[in-house]
Amino acid sequence: MTADTATDVFELHRPVLIGVAYRMLGGIADAEDVVQEAWLRWSSASREDLREPRAFLVRVVTRLAIDRLRQVRSRRESYVGPWLPEPLVTDFGPAVPDTAEQAVLADSVSVAVLVVLESLSPLERAVFVLREAFGFPYAEIAAALGRSEAAVRQLAGRARRHVDERKPRYDVDPARRRDLTERFLAAAAGGDIQELLALLAPDVRLVGDSGGKSKAPLRIIESADKVGRFLFAVAHGRIPDPGFRFLELNGGPGLLVLSGGKPDSVFQVDIRNGLIQSVYIVRNPDKLIGLAAE
Questions:
Q1: Are residues 11 and 32 in the same domain?
Q2: What is the pLDDT of residues 144-176, one digit of tens each?
Q3: Residue 263 forms beta bridges with which residues?
Q4: How far apart are CA 167 and CA 178, in angstroms?
Q5: Are residues 201 and 263 located together in one domain of the fold?
Q6: At what angle do helices 53-76 and 28-43 cross, to 10 degrees?
Q7: Buried b / exposed e across 94-117, counting CB within 10 Å, b at 16+?
Q8: CATH of the domain at 55
Q9: Mean pLDDT in the chain?
Q10: Are 129 and 114 in contact (CB under 8 A)?
Q11: CB-based contacts of 83, cutoff 8 Å, min separation 6
Q12: Cα(20)–Cα(4) distance, rounded to whole angstroms?
């Protein structure tokens, strides 16, 4: 295989590799580092490995991601305030034409699911991502992890039960989510506290991620009254030269707030029974770098 052909083959598989690594790690920079390391190993791979490029690359990325996950988790133990995954721009588009497949991919990359995946062991998380998000056969996952197929099936069952027990049930219709998100933001920006409260579920939760590098709640805020009043105060705070942009983030609508043309924060919401159940705010500037060009 020539150098050009090797590059073409690797680039063909890059979207899946990034997808696996991001779902494993919850961070774009970490995922890109893992994929770059995979490229170095691919470029020096043996002829035998080159015969099955997809299997080889997924195996390498998965193992690298498991090692990286163990490292980043030790750092997250000292993280200031709640931790949320880095916002990821998602546009599955024609590359994933099937609506059911899009729904699976969107759900597996949602903030709610990624937060739950943080509570899995690295091996359980790898099995869940490869099986549930990408539909890899158990035999292929077993080969990637160096485990027996029976052991992988046990890990998959345990991980699935764990996620099902802890994953909130939300409305996933994109049009409905965007409509409610826009109404919610309009109510906050317009100063209509009663309209804002009417859109919030009684037990709504607000999670803010600043990493201690900007202003955001250091604890989860709960109840419609407290969340509504916090959002009302945020909407009427002073943001120099504000701007707003809707993006598809983590498989659903999100709002990018700009200050002087630079990313200031990201708002995402989860909806259940027509009401906002969760509000996620990311203000850690390290997690907004990738949105600067959006």
A1: yes
A2: 999 999 999 999 999 999 999 988 777 667 778
A3: 258
A4: 21
A5: yes
A6: 140
A7: eebeeeeebebbbbbbbbbbbbbb
A8: 1.20.140.160
A9: 88
A10: no
A11: 76, 118, 209
A12: 24
Alpha-carbon span 252 to 191, nearest angstrom: 25
30-73 pLDDT tens trace = 999 999 999 999 988 776 667 789 999 999 999 999 999 999 98
Q: Are residues 197 and 274 in the same domain?
A: yes
Which of the listed ranges 160-174, 184-198, 272-286 does the model predict with the highest average pLDDT? 272-286
Q: Give the largest Cα separation in the chain, rounded.
A: 66
Task: Say yes or no: 178 and 156 in one domain.
Answer: no
Q: Is 91 exposed, middle or buried (0-12, 13-18, 19+ CB in 10 A)?
A: exposed
Name the residue range of residue 207's domain: 174-291
Any idea which residue has 């890990």 for tokens?
A: 155
Find out whether 26 and 209 touch, Cβ atoms under 8 Å: no
Last residue of a domain, one of 138, 163, 188: 163
**Of 92, 73, 93, the residue nearest 83 (C-alpha):** 73
Determine the average pLDDT of the residues in 274-286: 94
Element (DSSP H or E) covering residue 272:
strand 262-272
Domain match, 155 and 281 both: no
